[in-house]
Specification:
The structure holds 2 protein chains of 2 kinds. Chain A is an all-alpha fold. Chain A has one domain: ABC transporter involved in vitamin B12 uptake, BtuC (Orthogonal Bundle). Chain A is built from 15 helices and no strands. In chain A, helix 2 packs antiparallel against helix 4, helix 2 packs parallel to helix 14 and helix 4 packs across helix 13. The two termini of chain A are 22 Å apart. The N terminus and C terminus of chain A are likely disordered. By secondary structure, chain B is an alpha/beta fold. Chain B folds into 3 domains: 143 residues, P-loop containing nucleotide triphosphate hydrolases (Rossmann fold, 3-Layer(aba) Sandwich), CATH 3.40.50; 63 residues, no CATH class; 45 residues, no CATH class. Chain B contains 10 helices and 11 strands. In chain B, strands 5-6-7-3-8-9 form a 6-stranded mixed beta sheet, sandwiched between helices. In chain B, helix 5 links the parallel strand 6 and strand 7. In chain B, helix 3 packs across helix 4. In chain B, 39% of the residues are buried. The chains are: A mainly alpha, B alpha/beta. Chains A and B meet through helix 2, helix 10 and helix 11 of A and strand 5 of B.
C-alpha cells in the first residue's frame, strides 16, 4: 500500500485508479484459481493433458453425441468422476474458509479469530463423529455435522446473550463451547469400535478430499452459494462492525442482529465444509491476513479476495497432498504444518499494520 | 426554571430524567431540558458528575431509570476517543456515516461517495481521503469523525468533548463548524465540554450539572457565570473583557495556581531551602 500513500489522493481520479487496481487484482486471482483448477485435473499418478481436460469439461457442460471422443475411457472416468468433484470441493472449501475467516475476524475485531472461535467447527466435528459412531451413511454424517455446528452456535448464542453482548463475552463463550465439543469428540472416539469406526473417525477428523464425489459437491455447494451471496452483499456493513458497538449502533446499525445473522451464514459455510472434508485448520486464520496485506481492510474487496486466495491455497495444498508421496497426506495436517509458521511470521511482521492490537 | 417539555419545536426534550447504575445511588435525578431545533446545547459538569451517562441516555445507549425523553430526528454521534480495529482509509471511515442511507444488502452508491468527499472537503481535510485512519493524530482523527457525522446528514449532532484533542487553531475551527452547522444547516447540536469559554462562544443554552438533583439551565451567558463556575470546579475564574476588531468581547478564563498555598508548601521543606528558592 506504500505506493498508494506516497502518490496521495487527487479526488475521484485517484479513487477510480484504486478501484480499477482492485478489480483487476480480483480478476487476476479469479483467473489464477480457474487455471490452477484446470491444471490440478491433469495432476496425479495418471497424468492428463490440459487439452484433453478442456475437451472433457466442454463435453460435461454441453453434453452431446461425440462420434469420436478425443479421450480414452480411463481419462473420462478419472476427470469426470474423481478429479473434477474433488477439485471443486477443494476450491469451494478453500473459498468458504477464506471468506468465513475474513468475516469472523472483522466481526470479532480480532485477527486471531477463525471459524473455530464460535464453536462451529467443533460442534460440526462432534455431529459428524457421532453420526459415524451411530453408523450413519454419507448423508447422515453431513446432516450431523451441519446440525452439530448449528447446535454449538445456538448454545454459544444463548450463553453469550445471557451474560452480556460484548465481544469478549462472545469469544470466551466460543472458547467454552469449543472445549466442550472437543471433549465430546474425545468421548465419541473413546466409545468407538477401535477396529472399524475409530480409524474412520480419525481420518475424517484429519480432513480429506479423497472421498469427494458429485453428492459432496452438491452438499457443499448449496449452502456456500446462498451464504456467500448474502455475505458479499453485506460486505460493506461488515466495515461498520469493526467500530465499537455504541458507535456502530449510533450510525444506524442493529449490531446484535447483524452479528448473529452473519455468524449463522458463516456456520452454514463452515459446517457443510466440515461435513464434506473434515476439519481443515489454519486456512481461515492466515488467508485473510494475506488478503488484507494486498487489498487493505475494506470488506468489499477483502471478502472476495480472501475467498479467491483461500480457494487457490487449498487446491494447491490438495495437489501436494495427493501427489507428494505414494500415499495421500491428510490435508488438515498439511495446512496446519504450513499455516502455523506462516501465522507466526505474520504476527511478527504485521504487528503494526493492517490490524491493530489495542 | 420551568421549561415545557411538550414544545413541538423541540428536537430533544427530557423531563424528570434520572439514572442510577446501583439502585438508590443516583448519578443524577429530576433533570429536565428542552432543546429547540437548530440550537446549540452545551452540557458542563465536573468529572464523574454524569455527563457521559447523560449523553448515553440521550443517544439511547442506556435506558434511564426514570423520566421521559423525546428525540425528534436522526442522531449522529462524535465520540471522544476513537479506536478502530482495522486499517481503514479516512474516506472509508467517513463513508460509514452513510450507513442509514445504505440498505442491509446493498453497498454505498456514487451519491454516498460524493457526500463523504464533500464532508471531508468542507472540513478542509480532503487530502486525508486515502490516508490510513490509524496513522493520524488524535486531533486529526477527531476531525475525520466530525466529517463522518456531517456525511450522515443527521438532524441532531451529539458531540462528546469535541475540542478535547485539538490545538487552539483547530478548536476555533471546530467551534466555527459547530456554529455554521447550527445556523446554516439548521442542525441541533448537543455537546459536552470542559471549556466554559467554548460554550460561551457558540452555545445557545447551557446545562450546568451542579449535583445529583441540582442543575442550572438557561442561556449560556446566564448560566455560565464566574461565581457558578468557580464554585462548581473549585477553580478561580476570571472575567476577561477586551476589544477585538472593534467589538467588545467577554469571556471567562480559569486562573490556575500551581500551588494552592505557597507558605504551607514551603514550610514542609527545610527553612534554608526556602531562603534559597525564594530569594
Amino acid at each position: 500500500m506504500s505506493d498508494v500513500l506516497s502518490t496521495q489522493s487527487r479526488g475521484s481520479l485517484h479513487a477510480r485508479f484504486l478501484l480499477s487496481r482492485t478489480s483487476s487484482g480480483l480478476l487476476l486471482l479469479a483467473l489464477m484459481l480457474a487455471g490452477l483448477c484446470i491444471a490440478s485435473l491433469g495432476l496425479g499418478r495418471y497424468a492428463i493433458s490440459v487439452q484433453t481436460i478442456i475437451r472433457i469439461i466442454g463435453a460435461l457442460v454441453w453434453p452431446g453425441e461425440q462420434l469420436q471422443p478425443a479421450w480414452t475411457a480411463n481419462e473420462w472416468v478419472v476427470v469426470a468422476h474423481f478429479r473434477l468433484p474433488r477439485v471443486i470441493v477443494a476450491a469451494i472449501s478453500g473459498m468458504g474458509l477464506g471468506l468465513s475467516g475474513a468475516v469472523l475476524q472483522g466481526l470479532f475485531r480480532n485477527p486471531l479469530v477463525g471459524p473455530n472461535i464460535v464453536g462451529v467447527s467443533q460442534g460440526a466435528a462432534f455431529g459428524g463423529v457421532l453420526s459415524i459412531l451411530l453408523g450413519a451413511g454419507a448423508l447422515g454424517i453431513v446432516s450431523g455435522a451441519v446440525l452439530g455446528g448449528l447446535f454449538a452456535l445456538t448454545i454459544c448464542f444463548i450463553l453469550a446473550s445471557a451474560s452480556g453482548s460484548g465481544i469478549l463475552t462472545l469469544v470466551l463463550t466460543g472458547l467454552v463451547v469449543s472445549a466442550f465439543f472437543g471433549a465430546a469428540v474425545g468421548v465419541v472416539q473413546y466409545l468407538a469400535d477401535p477396529e472399524n469406526q475409530l480409524p474412520n473417525i480419525v481420518y475424517w477428523l484429519l480432513g480429506s478430499f479423497a472421498s469427494a464425489d458429485w453428492s459432496a459437491v452438491l452438499t457443499i455447494m448449496a449452502p456456500f452459494i446462498v451464504a456467500t451471496t448474502m455475505l458479499l452483499m453485506m460486505s460493506w456493513r461488515l466495515n461498520l462492525l469493526a467500530l465499537d458497538d455504541l458507535d456502530a449502533s449510533m450510525l444506524g446499525v442493529n449490531v446484535k442482529r447483524l452479528r448473529w445473522l452473519i455468524i449463522f451464514l458463516v456456520t452454514l459455510i463452515v459446517a457443510s465444509q466440515v461435513a464434506v472434508s473434515g476439519g481443515i485448520a489454519w486456512v481461515g486464520l492466515i488467508i485473510p491476513h494475506f488478503a488484507r496485506m494486498i487489498f487493505g481492510a475494506d470488506h468489499r474487496t477483502l471478502l472476495p479476495a480472501s475467498a479467491l486466495l483461500g480457494g487457490i491455497y487449498v487446491v494447491a495444498m490438495d495437489d501436494i497432498a495427493r501427489t507428494a508421496s505414494s500415499q495421500e497426506i491428510p490435508i488438515g495436517l498439511l495446512t496446519a504444518l504450513v499455516g502455523t509458521p506462516i501465522f507466526a511470521w505474520l504476527i511478527h511482521k504485521n504487528r503494526n499494520r493492517g490490524w491493530r492490537s489495542e | 426554571m420551568d421549561i415545557s417539555s411538550s414544545n413541538p419545536e423541540a428536537a430533544v426534550s427530557f423531563s424528570n430524567l434520572g439514572h442510577a447504575y446501583v439502585p438508590d445511588t443516583w448519578i443524577f435525578r429530576r433533570y429536565h431540558a428542552s432543546v429547540r431545533k437548530g440550537e446549540i446545547f452545551a452540557i458542563l459538569g465536573p468529572n464523574g458528575r454524569g455527563k457521559t451517562t447523560l449523553l448515553k441516555i440521550l443517544l439511547g445507549a442506556i435506558q434511564p431509570c426514570e423520566g421521559t425523553l423525546q428525540i425528534d430526528g436522526d442522531v449522529a454521534f462524535v465520540p471522544q476517543l476513537f479506536q478502530v480495529s482495522f486499517d481503514f482509509s479516512c474516506l472509508d471511515m467517513v463513508l460509514m456515516g452513510r450507513a442509514r442511507k445504505v440498505g442491509l444488502f446493498t453497498k454505498p452508491k456514487a451519491s454516498d461517495l460524493n457526500a463523504a468527499s464533500a464532508a471531508l472537503e468542507r472540513l478542509g481535510i480532503a487530502h486525508f481521503a486515502e490516508l490510513p485512519f490509524h496513522q493520524l493524530s488524535g486531533g486529526q482523527r477527531q476531525l475525520v469523525i466530525f466529517a463522518r457525522a456531517i456525511a450522515a446528514e443527521a438532524d441532531i449532532l451529539v458531540l462528546d468533548e469535541p475540542t478535547s484533542a485539538l490545538d487552539l487553531q483547530n478548536q476555533q475551527q471546530v467551534l466555527r463548524w459547530i456554529y455554521a452547522l447550527s445556523r446554516q444547516d439548521g442542525l441541533t447540536v448537543l455537546m459536552t465540554t470542559h471549556h466554559p469559554h467554548h460554550a460561551l462562544a457558540v452555545a445557545d443554552q447551557a446545562l450546568l450539572m451542579l449535583g445529583c438533583d441540582r442543575f442550572d439551565i438557561g442561556p449560556a451567558k446566564h448560566v455560565l457565570t464566574k461565581e457558578a463556575l468557580s464554585a462548581l470546579y473549585n477553580v478561580t475564574m476570571a472575567r476577561a473583557r477586551f476589544q477585538h476588531r472593534d467589538r467588545s468581547m467577554e469571556t471567562l478564563v480559569p486562573v490556575f495556581e500551581a500551588c494552592p498555598d505557597r507558605t504551607q508548601l514551603l514550610e514542609t521543606r527545610g527553612v534554608s531551602e526556602v531562603n534559597s528558592t525564594i530569594m
